[in-house]
Design brief:
It is a single chain. This protein has 68 residues and is α+β, with helices and mostly antiparallel strands. It has a domain of 42 residues. The chain is built from 2 helices and 4 strands; from the N terminus they run H-E-E-E-E-H. The strands form 2 sheets. It has a two-stranded antiparallel ribbon. The protein is elongated. The mean pLDDT is 87.
């Protein structure tokens, strides 16, 4: 396995890493409650996605209705 003979300088290392910056995640507004969410994901506040409630709370609500 090849090993470097000399240590890379800080400048050389930083030049290589200039393109590795972290980008901010994209945000979209939920049309139902107007909260910011990640695109193509269900809203964390109201649980709606493309006009339908898809949150885990639906299963809990259906289970409560069936037991009554």
């Amino acid at each position: 396995m090849a090993l470097p003979k000399r240590r890379h300088s800080n400048q050389r290392t930083r030049k290589r890493r200039t393109h590795q910056g972290v980008t901010a995640s994209a945000l979209a507004r939920c049309p139902h409650c107007k909260a910011y969410t990640r695109p193509h994901n269900a809203c964390a506040k109201c649980g709606y996605y493309q006009g339908e409630k898809v949150d885990h709370t639906i299963k809990e609500e259906k289970a409560k209705r069936e037991h009554k």
